[in-house]
């Protein structure tokens, strides 16, 4: 082999031995001490929005539940655990920000055994099938232990942001930062409610008149993970109800392929799209283009409880 | 295949290993590998258009052979015009057909006649403007007997399709690049390291500077009515950095990659934003295209010789054609014409060759006069970039109207920058860092060239590690194509 090429390979390896630790050190310094604007591709945030840290801490000690909620922020901001507990049901809301089906899978792998739910309300917002899952991956890496399931999730959602978050997440695991961290229950307008719900101060959505037509494009890896999750729940003996929580009607109507989505979900099991089942008002029942405010949550949850009582009383 | 993609990160080492370890003993095989690799590189985007490159290669190869056997002037001309016709025909059809058709329709409707021919849904093949010009240079040089025609088809095909510079240049002259395919390449450690360093700097320019500047520039250009003049001016400045970082970054990666394979490509950018007048700017910006037009259009037209009217005409022709080369839109034509207007006074006053060396050549800092000269040249460039970036003339005029309003003197607010994933101060910090490095490396082929290589190894490696870290932390997470791909 050419000596010059060998020399390049040798120096290349030496440089890698220098640059990789340098990168990791700079990454840890930036992740832990730099101001937020300098962390464009580092999303390591213990106890960031969504109270995931508190939720995960609680789920580890939860024990068996009758009703488990899964899904994105539409879930942890859309299913008020207090209203379901008032019906005498033991519940847990395991939703998280932008939780896509790849992350639901990790959470089920970790906690399904201990939760052993009888019924799972799987919130199926079409956007969760369209996302790359990066935001939610970084949320879970930042707030939960990095185990073999997390590594699998990282491989399925590769990218700079996930890698740059994985490193400080591992570091905080090793140094015990995650386990000793205490998250405040009230952060800005958000209040963490035990069993996973986050209540937002009552606000009203200022509707933006936007009639542009849109379409969701679903990713096959999310559809695959979704099917696997349903299989996993079935194997654990849990009944599953697929639910699409309401979003502002003005926003919902802009999507062209909602009927296709409904049909897709119906193929996977019992499915209820509350955008068709309820008549809600953009500004009265929502606080932004995605989320119900507390008035909306109560109205939606009442409808759901009615439905559960009618159809699922035999829990 | 994009240089800033995972695909390329895998493709490059594979080709490198095959090139130096499997085919190194056989020149023909090595050239064939380059052709195959280049076709894979191009076909990754759309394999159907490989037929265009192949056809163009065949035509120019045969024209070259024909010219070598032909002494009859008329027949030689026919051969030359065959090459020009085929290459410009492809370019005209794929790039300009709809433009001419639309303008034709508008001209008729202006005279009260409505016609409705169907415009075609034509996809512009990536890099067509670059490789057609490269092959044309071969035919013209062979016709002018400046270059011996090649009989080695594989070498010629490798010259036309050489993947590092296939889709966005530098547009190489046959006289420089083609002979490199005839000679056996030897691997040189220092050249390869230099190439890797230039690739790293090119990636930094593209991924950290251009893509982040683009985020703000796009925001302001998309809805200019929402922003005051001061913010719109900033948007145009950001675009200036976007296009420079994007295009010169591509060139750096191309030159660096070619160096890894033992090839030497021409410098395409020589720190144009440190120019003291527009003539200097045009000697430093997209050098391979400017010199192409100079040699194959400007000089044949008479150049700067002849009467005043001839000088003015030739200057306008070269700038307007250069503008039109960039795209089938009136905005590019106006961009070219505006640059001609900038350049003409210098030419007529014979001051177009005042600044030939680098600014502040033997000093660390520029003089106040040089600062003023660079700032005013940059400002003129920024204004011209507005036409280059705008979707159409109405958009450009609305944007300029927004800049030249009383709101030009208002202080931008934080709210103007909402909607971007990056804080504007971070972008200013990155631009400051970038300008500083470029300033200290302005006498080199690229900013972190020889100056850095003379530093102790620890400092050099620390700097490279810092650049890699900045790539990792500030890169856009989605792959963004290079602007010049659309040309």
Please describe what this structure looks like.
By secondary structure, chain A is an alpha/beta fold. Chain A has 16 helices and 8 strands. Chain A has a 5-stranded parallel β-sheet. A 3-stranded antiparallel β-sheet of chain A has the order 4-5-6, with no helix packed on it. In chain A, helix 7 packs parallel to helix 9 (160-174). Chain A is globular. Chain B has 487 residues and is mostly helical. Chain B has helices at residues 6-22, 27-46, 50-69, 73-110, 128-143, 153-161, 174-182, 189-222, 229-260, 278-284, 287-301, 308-326, 330-348, 368-389, 393-403, 424-440, 450-453, 457-474. Chain B starts with 5 loop residues before the first helix and ends in a 13-residue tail after the last helix. At the A-B interface, helix 1 and helix 9 of A face helix 8 and helix 18 of B.
Task: Draw up the topology in text.
The complex is a heterodimer of chains A (315) and B (487).
Chain A: H1 3-33, H2 52-60, E1 67-70, H3 73-76, H4 81-85, E2 91-93, H5 101-115, E3 119-123, H6 127-130, H7 134-143, H8 148-156, H9 160-174, H10 177-180, E4 186-187, E5 190-193, E6 197-200, H11 220-235, E7 239-244, H12 249-252, H13 258-266, E8 271-273, H14 274-277, H15 282-285, H16 294-312
Parallel strand pairs in A: 1-2, 1-3, 3-7, 7-8
Antiparallel strand pairs in A: 4-5, 5-6
Helix pairs in contact in A: 1-9, 5-8, 5-11, 7-9
Chain B: H1 6-22, H2 27-46, H3 50-69, H4 73-110, H5 128-143, H6 153-161, H7 174-182, H8 189-222, H9 229-260, H10 278-284, H11 287-301, H12 308-326, H13 330-348, H14 368-389, H15 393-403, H16 424-440, H17 450-453, H18 457-474
Helix pairs in contact in B: 1-2, 2-6, 3-4, 3-5, 3-6, 4-5, 6-7, 8-9, 8-16, 8-18, 9-14, 9-15, 11-12, 12-13, 13-14, 14-15
Transmembrane segments (chain A): 12-34
Protein name (chain A): DUF1574 domain-containing protein
Keywords (chain A): Membrane, Transmembrane, Transmembrane helix
